[in-house]
Design goal:
Helix content is 31%, strand content 24%. It is of the alpha/beta class. It has 2 domains: 142 residues, Nucleotidyltransferase, domain 5 (2-Layer Sandwich), CATH 3.30.420.40; 241 residues, Exopolyphosphatase. Domain 2 (Nucleotidyltransferase, domain 5, 2-Layer Sandwich). β8 and β9 form a beta hairpin. It binds inosine-5'-diphosphate (IDP) and calcium ion.
Length: 406
């Protein structure tokens, strides 16, 4: 403490000492209104100097299920779930910083799939909850996020957390996100060829931390894990008639059950008389993905970070450790899919969709995106104890637009 500005430290007890009030500490609250759940991320940042990137000092994370889209016909009830989560932020953020702490909610594919009218009703109820809170409510604080931003912001998060956005010699990593209703792929192309071969709307320039990145990104609506279940069953975007049964060779033969998604009830079951198992299941799933996705040549050999349902299903089947994650090859998902689909009785205590989910993941990676069998996937839930979600990137972007970071 040789700095002469700190002479006063000796005169104050440590907790009220002005230097410990940390004028450079600030907070940001970001809601992720996903198709399967709503989550709050309360971040604490410290910016030590204008030359350095802000540091994430901590994150408080909480979630509720189901997501807002399940309240399509009860928007007020949906907004109440947001209120419950926001109350946590009231406790977490020091009162003198409430007015300087922005709160934002971005909805993803669940709300994209609802009618404009129902989605807007939900969002305006949420906006009211925000306005009644003590926090800073920026313009556009509640809305549906563009699919391309979802990928870009997750890419920012992962590359920030792995230290690739600062300093020289940046070796950025690509990311794969598999949600309930949509899926994203994002990477920084290294070859001129990739830029030439890629349709314009898959490329987005993005400025963050004083650098501009031209990223390849795309969000495929209806290709999230749960939407893919419906597509495989032939029930996606169908007017469901009461009593209608959707059957698949990817489900246990004797199964008959019902399932709610996006406010609609579906009845589904196994192929009572027909085939079940990996082979027929793969063919069924293939119809959902084959020829539907753009396949950039460049990704075949590179490794990717993968999270959300890629992580969850790999952890459910012990391909990776639930806490620590792990490193896999694309072929590991196919191997596990075979094991589960060809022994469905043995896995009947797990989700009845386990075979379908794993088979879909294998097909999406291989036939959808065109990855090789030996493409390496790094499965991570957290990096340095911070969730690998687009929400951190979105919070940086927000703070930058409010002039709160450099
Ligand atoms: O903060 C997070 N950290 C890690 N995983 C998350 C987080 N938020 C959501 N997920 C994962 O996202 C998946 C659900 O997708 P979501 O509900 O966001 O659908 P959507 O992206 O299609 O709207 C689940 O695998 C869930 O574990
Ligand atoms: Ca998501």
């Amino acid at each position: 403490h040789s700095n002469r500005e700190m002479w006063f430290q000796e005169f104050f007890p440590p907790n009220v000492c002005p230097i410990n009030a940390k004028a450079n500490t600030f907070y940001g609250i970001m809601f992720d209104a996903g198709s399967t759940g709503t989550r709050i991320h309360i971040y604490t940042f410290v910016q030590k100097s204008p030359e350095n990137l802000p540091e994430v000092e901590g994150e408080i994370f909480e979630s509720v299920k189901p997501g807002l889209s399940a309240y399509a016909d009860q928007p007020e009830k949906g907004a109440e779930t947001v209120k419950t989560l926001l109350d946590m932020a009231v406790d977490a953020v020091p009162p003198h910083l409430w007015k300087k702490t922005p709160v934002v909610l971005k909805a993803t594919a669940g709300l994209r799939l609802l009618s404009e009218e129902k989605a807007q009703a939900l969002l305006s109820e949420v906006k009211e909850v925000f306005e009644e809170s003590p926090f800073l409510v920026p313009e556009d604080s509640v809305g549906i996020m563009d699919g391309s931003h979802e990928g870009i912001l997750a890419w920012i998060t992962v590359n920030f957390l792995t230290g690739q956005l600062s300093g020289q010699n940046q070796q950025t990593v690509g990311i794969l996100d598999l949600g309930g209703a949509s899926t994203q792929i994002t990477f920084l192309p290294r070859f001129e060829e990739t830029l030439k071969e890629t349709p314009e709307d898959f490329l987005t320039s993005f400025e963050m931390f004083n650098s501009t990145y031209k990223l390849y990104t795309h969000s495929y609506l209806g290709f999230g894990l749960k939407a893919a279940r419906l597509a495989t069953l032939g029930a996606l975007n169908m007017e469901v008639v009461d009593g209608q049964m959707f059957r698949s060779s990817c489900l246990p033969k004797q199964l008959e059950a019902e399932w709610h998604f996006g406010g609609v009830k579906y009845q589904y079951g196994g192929n009572k008389e027909g085939e079940t198992g990996f082979k027929p299941c793969y063919l069924e799933v293939l119809k959902v993905v084959k020829g539907k996705l753009h396949q950039p040549e460049e990704i075949r050999g590179s490794s990717f970070y993968a999270f959300s349902y890629y992580y969850d299903r790999a952890a459910d089947t012990n391909l990776i450790d639930y806490e620590r994650g792990g490193v896999l090859e694309v072929r590991d998902f196919e191997r596990k899919a075979k094991e589960v689909c060809d022994n469905m009785e043995r896995y009947n205590s797990a989700s009845p969709f386990l075979c379908m989910d794993l088979t879909y993941i294998a097909a999406l990676l291989k036939e959808g995106f065109g990855f090789r069998d030996n493409t390496v996937l790094k499965l991570t839930k957290k990096v340095n104890n911070i969730e690998t979600s687009w929400t951190l990137g979105a919070t940086f972007y927000l703070l930058q637009s409010l002039g709160m970071t450099y």
